[in-house]
Amino acid sequence: RVYEGLDEYFDANGDDDLWLLTTKAAHTYTEADLSRGASLMFGRETSGLPEELMQKYLSRTIRIPMKPQARSLNLASSASIVLFEALRQQGFPGLMSRGVLSIDDSF
Questions:
Q1: How far apart are CA 42 and CA 82, in angstroms?
Q2: How many CB atoms sit inside 10 A of residue 57's CB?
Q3: In angstroms, what CA-CA distances link 89 with 34, 78, 107?
Q4: From CA 20, how far away is CA 82, in angstroms rounded?
């Protein structure tokens, strides 16, 4: 869902289990407890999330470890990394628990 702004988002969802992604966080995404479900908030690739929002939820800011000379990761890549961690912590609900390999003797 797309929201017109932060106020509309918070009115609809509150701030339970909210995690903010920023390169400035002290803790990494693997330290966050995403096992009960989570709302993950990412900012724009160019500017990130508003500073005042990160200050308000400082204890819920997390980052993806990167090399010091890297400015940031692509937004889609960042979302994929953290979403996969959330699914992993939840035991991959609704996903195939194992693949099936068909053996082909033609080699």
A1: 10
A2: 14
A3: 6, 17, 38
A4: 11
Distance CA 28, CA 51 (A): 18
Identify whether the C-beta of residue 64 lies closer than 8 Å to the C-beta of residue 42. no
What are 94's two structure tokens?
A: 């609704």
CA 28 to chain centre: 11
CA distance 15 to 9: 9
Is the full-model pTM beyond 0.90?
no
Q: Are 5 and 53 in contact (CB under 8 A)?
A: no
Beta carbons within 8 Å of 85's beta carbon, 6+ residues apart: 29, 30, 34
The length of the chain, given as a count of residues: 107
73-91 CB burial, b ≥16 within 10 A, e <16: beeeebeeebeebbeebee
- Encode pLDDT of 41-57 as tens digits: 999 888 899 999 999 99
